[in-house]
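Quick check before the chapter quiz. The format below is the same one you will see on the exam, so make sure you can read both the input and the output lines.
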Amino acid sequence: MEPHRDDVGRHKPASGVRITLGEPTIVFVTVAAEHRVPWVAQPRVHEFVKQAWNEAQAWLVGYYLLMPDHLHFFCAPRDLNIPFDRWLTYWKRRFTINAQNPEWRWQSHKWDTRLRRSENYHDKWVYVRENPVRKRLVTNPDDWPYQGMVNILPW
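Here is the expected output.
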């Protein structure tokens, strides 16, 4: 298959999330701790992340899961005037302000992909929930305490 003209010479994915009116938009996101230092999966961080998402409601967070050195979540736009990258920067800043811990820093870049119509949000979530099992942190995904859902996302 020929690469799309805009993709020729590209070494990393394009930035930004394209929103098409009349179609659902759910984005799967991975954000890592700076230098992949394993500080993310702990009760206080879990609470500060949820607090930041509740303060930054231009995008709605659905299912999420914190791993020791990164987090995964699904989100959808609530306010079409706020671009995804701007919202992401805002909630990371809210987290930093609320946590008041200079050792808890996020990498500046992230990985994100918009789910296509043929992809199933629930199936992707089931796969993400298996991460702690694959890493041998728990034997059952239900035993992992650093996961949940903030909002029901439209699909």
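If your answer matched, good. Residues 1-14 have pLDDT under 50 and may be disordered.
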